[in-house]
Design goal:
Radius of gyration: 28 Å
Number of helices: 18
Largest sheet: none
Number of strands: 0
Shape: globular
Helix content: 55-70%
Strand content: under 5%
């Protein structure tokens, strides 16, 4: 029996076996077997592509010499092209559906995140002996993740651009130790903080591959933010000012102890709380997220952080511009009114502290002028040490009064070099570009409502981080790595979902 090259007979149960279960009901996605050919999708001819000749309908064909037989393939009719099919075909051609797995790795990641943010050994004195719990959870998670990833994907990690950039920054950190002023301090900064953030970032990118997993991690981060903002307001109300005589301190230590770092965290969480409120369908959940958003904004104010205020204003502008795209003229009128009301309702001396951004003499503590001097010094150090910097955690040795840079970007350039700064900027801005693509593709798609709002919320959070990080030395802390990981995971899930849709469309019914 002669067959046309490239076509294969269809088995009676092939269509049934190739059907995929509803991925919305699973924690993980089913694998998609790539079709042969780069950038193509294999299709099969329709059942009536070749006319069937039976003896009852027509006489047997006259034998033809072997060397004169000619076969002409019938034209393959392509499916109709629509804007939706164009958008989804990108994922079908270049992405594979995320495979099932990493359940144990995710459990470890979830527990690590819970301990990292809530720091139970600080909340409860009885648990003070567990101050290394996060460290051991990270070790256990990585120990489970590595063999699972090798068995599942055949590699140590997926390699989206963000992973490549963070690995380059890690290499820059290692190279900075060669020329570091104090090599022990450089190693301590690398080993105690930075490398943990990098490793768990890579774990998160590979493990968080379903909506449920991402949502649970967001719930953890928003829950601790609720607790921190509530405590900030409580301390302000009771006059518990432990910083500079008029500023509150975070309930938890680590990256929440300093009021400026606490304000930066509030800036990054406010857009996520607001978009989770919009996405939620249950009224009680909406109310909880609305209260959380209000508490976060109020908690930001009582930190008296100027960088926190600027970050909050920028995130508000991003959210207003994107969510109110059909009412921008009205927003241009309402926005200034809301800002004036905000300043009127703000606590005493808040406006004076904000004005010190432009008039340093209004700052009675002199921190504004001091930070300007430190910024200038960090830029000079960066220009004098452009290749590998002066070593991670070493800036205080050349700074004024042993202070840090108070700027995440010059912290990177001064301590690790200009190339590391460029990579860090790309690490922060790259996910925003991908989130904008998701936003555009889902703007008019009700089934993708969650992707639409989460992409906007994460964009605002990342922009807010970049603004507030200009006033805080937090380049090695967890803030950015969790945000970027959330963005990368959302992008991978979006591509996977639409690759699944496209694969179903190209299969004959």
């Amino acid at each position: 029996m002669l067959t046309l090259a490239g076509f294969r007979p269809r088995s009676s149960n092939e269509d049934q076996d190739s059907e995929m279960p509803n991925i919305d009901d699973l924690w993980d996605y089913q694998p998609l077997v790539r079709r042969p050919g780069k950038g193509t999708v294999e299709t099969e001819p329709a059942e009536d592509a070749w006319p069937a000749h039976s003896s009852a309908q027509s006489p047997a064909p006259t034998p033809v010499p072997h060397d004169t037989r000619v076969f002409i393939a019938p034209p393959v009719v392509a499916p109709p092209v629509t804007p939706r099919s164009i958008a989804t075909s990108v994922g079908a051609r270049s992405r594979a559906i995320l495979r099932r797995g990493h359940t144990l790795s995710y459990v470890g990641l979830f527990l690590f995140t819970l301990v990292l943010y809530f720091r139970p050994y600080e909340l409860f004195s009885a648990l003070s002996s567990l101050d290394k719990l996060a460290y051991w959870l990270a070790i256990a998670t990585i120990a489970v993740f590595i063999p699972s990833q090798l068995a599942l994907e055949g590699n140590l990690t997926a390699f989206p651009r963000s992973v490549k950039l963070v690995l380059f920054i890690t290499l820059a950190g290692l190279l900075s130790m060669i020329t570091a002023i104090n090599k022990q301090e450089a190693w301590a900064e690398f080993n105690d903080v930075f490398i943990k953030a990098v490793l768990m970032f890579i774990v998160m990118v590979n493990v968080v591959r379903t909506e449920r997993r991402l949502t649970l991690l967001l719930y953890v981060t928003l829950a601790v933010t609720f607790l921190l903002s509530f405590n900030a307001l409580s301390d302000y109300r009771t006059g518990n000012f432990t910083v500079e005589g008029y500023r509150i301190k975070g309930l938890l230590g680590g990256m929440f102890g300093n009021p400026n770092d606490l304000a930066l965290h509030f800036v990054t969480m406010a857009p996520l709380a607001l978009t989770m409120m919009v996405i939620s369908r249950r009224l009680i959940v909406k109310i909880v997220f609305l209260i959380t958003t209000i508490l976060i904004v109020a908690g930001n104010v009582v930190t008296y952080s100027r960088g926190g205020f600027l970050g909050l204003m920028v995130t508000a502008l991003v959210l207003a511009w994107k969510l109110g795209r059909h009412h921008r003229a009205m927003l241009a009128i309402v926005g200034p009114v809301v800002l004036v009301a905000f300043m009127v309702l703000a606590p005493g001396n808040y406006g004076r502290r904000l004005l010190s951004i432009f008039v340093p003499g209004l700052d009675t503590m002199g921190s504004a002028s001091s930070r300007q001097e430190i910024l200038n010094r960090s830029i000079i150090v960066s220009l004098r040490n452009p290749i590998t910097g002066i070593g991670m955690g070493n800036f205080h040795t050349v700074s004024l009064r042993e202070t840090v840079t108070h700027n995440a970007f010059t912290q990177i350039s001064a301590e690790m070099g200009i190339a590391a700064l460029i990579a860090y900027m790309m690490f922060l801005t790259g996910p925003i570009m991908r989130l904008r693509r998701i936003e555009r593709n889902t703007m008019e798609s009700p089934p993708d409502r969650r992707y639409y709002y989460q992409s906007i919320g994460l964009q605002a959070s990342l922009v807010g981080y970049m603004v507030s990080a200009f006033f805080a030395a937090v380049a090695y802390q967890w803030y950015a790595y969790y945000l970027v990981a959330f963005a990368v995971c959302l992008s991978r899930m979006y591509d996977s979902d639409h690759a699944h849709e496209a694969s179903q469309k190209v299969r004959p019914s």
